[in-house]
Design brief:
Blueprint (H helix, E strand, L loop, with lengths): L5 E4 L5 E4 L7 E7 L1 H5 L6 E8 L8 E7 L6 E11 L5 E11 L13
Main location: secreted
InterPro entries: Avidin, Avidin-like_sf, Avidin/str, Avidin/Streptavidin-rel
Family: Belongs to the avidin/streptavidin family.
């Protein structure tokens, strides 16, 4: 069984801490990205998400958003899945979309990465 709660570190040394996952799959936590460390603004940003309980023999999928309001006018949405290898190591795989605020509808094309 893969447990989302706990402290996670990604390939860029960003940290994510997820509190306990509720019975219905909701969770919250905080995210500290290396981007904030590089700009001398090391602040934790809040995250909220939900985990889909897996079917029999499956691994859970999840999604969460991070609001970077302490240092950026942007929000990132992550979706992923949790896996456990034969040695018991848990791994999260994710993809993300980051949306930055822009000043006009004409600039919308450059707002999402």
């Amino acid at each position: 069984q893969c447990q989302l709660s706990g402290l996670w570190r990604n390939e860029q040394d960003s940290l994510m801490e997820i509190s306990a996952v509720t019975d219905n799959g909701d969770f919250q936590g905080k995210y500290l990205t290396r981007v904030t460390l590089a700009s001398n603004c090391a602040r934790a940003s809040p995250l909220r998400g939900a985990q889909q309980q897996p079917g029999e023999g499956g691994w859970p999928t999840f999604g969460f958003t991070v609001r970077w309001d302490k240092f950026s006018n942007a929000t990132t949405a992550f979706v992923g899945q949790c896996f456990v290898d034969a040695g018991g190591k848990e791994t999260l795989t994710t993809v993300w979309l980051l949306r930055e605020a822009v000043g006009s509808l004409q600039e919308d094309w450059k707002a999402t990465r």
